[in-house]
Amino acid sequence: NEAEIQALEEIIRKEEPTLVVVDSIQTMYSENLDSLPGSVGQIRDCSQRLLQLAKALGTTILIIGHVTKEGILAGPRMLEHMVDTVLYLEGDERYDHRMLRSVKNRFGATHEIGVFRMSSAGLEEVTNPSRLFLQERLGDVSGTVIYPSLEGTRPILVEVQALVTPARFGTPQRTANGLDFRRVSMLLAVLEKRLQRPLGMRDVFVNIVGGLKIDDPAADLAVIAAIVSSEQDRPVPEGMVLVGEVGLGGEVRNVTRLEQRLREAQELGCTRALVPKRSSVKSRHFDRLQLHPVLTVQEALAQLFRDR
Question: Do residue 149 and residue 91 come from a single domain?
Fold first, then answer.
């Protein structure tokens, strides 16, 4: 519970622990400075001392920093530049799972995530996040689509939901949870311009289930399919996954690590996949997953709702 950095240094040099947890850096202070704990000078000095100590003794030091309501590190951002690795523990109080996300790593890949579940024993690892996010999905309901996301190098299947209703109060509402609002607006414009879907007087709500935040153009095709499915009240065929970036011309573009995404879908029991036609991945690469290549959004929607 020692908040004075010089005293903490003495304890670490004496005990020589393999791991030190500093909670939090905003409460630490140096007696050599007159400023208050949490100020730029205090955080810089304390962090630099801990950095030098870790390198001198070979000790791993975890520095915990508070975050703001916007989800960014409180105080000066220079702390992120000083350390070797930056991890964000993310979660929504409405869910019992938490995600540990790597946004900086000098010794490995970034944007990797680990998924954990809160229990009476603390945080427990979720070995199959895809099953966690899909376990409550209703199959034969319009406006829901499975999309194979990629978090770092880890594929995770998530559910994209959409609800389209007539606007009853003048200006139509547009809401996007877990997706970039501007990207959803662009996809709605593509639907209106390229497919002549009159959505100007419709309320449109798009949601990523489980509190996930997706920043991946590969979700475009799934978002469009979910919107059209809800508008027509026609469910997407069971066992179908959709992946592909959508351009302003309505074309379906290739995405990165498609084969890895589709293998995760196959493991979870999916049997069909709509994929970009220009992809080099073919059906022969899979035992139980049939691929349906599409060149445009029009082709994708025609295949989805051909028999429905």
Answer: no
